[in-house]
Amino acid sequence: MKLKVIWPGxxxxxxxxxxEEYYLxxxxxxxxxxxxxxxxxxxxxxxxxxxxxxxxxxxLEKHLKDDYIICLFDKGKEMTSLEFARFLEKVxxxxxxxxxxxxGGFLGLDERILKRADFILSLSRxxxxxxxxxxxxxxxxxxxxxxxxxxxxxx
Length: 155
What we know:
The chain is an alpha/beta fold. Helix content is 44%, strand content 20%. The chain has a single domain, classed as Alpha/beta knot (3-Layer(aba) Sandwich), CATH 3.40.1280.10. Strand 1, helix 1 and strand 2 form a beta-alpha-beta unit.
């Protein structure tokens, strides 16, 4: 199974960045995973949200090939960790493509990215910062891989 996680910009919070690196290392013990930090829109006032999301969409699209694209979106499908593991296993086996997770910036994802998605996933009905969402996704990917491989994972 090959995985990619794409998001605009770097994680500014060093503690969160450390947790990202921790989970990426654990994930890579079970499956090949690459984090891609695309270019983020900078210097544009938040009042121009549509323009910011458009710029970030252009940059995200540069990294989307013939992948199985899973976008994180608050109105996406929610799953338990076990359901997510079974889903991820099924996608990896049946699609034969790289499974790519796309996480938006602080304003979320542009509609054109969501339209390209093969699946739209919600981490929760709660709202998380985009940086914290990255960590939650990585933790759940690791948990899913551990479940798929039959390894114990602390609850």
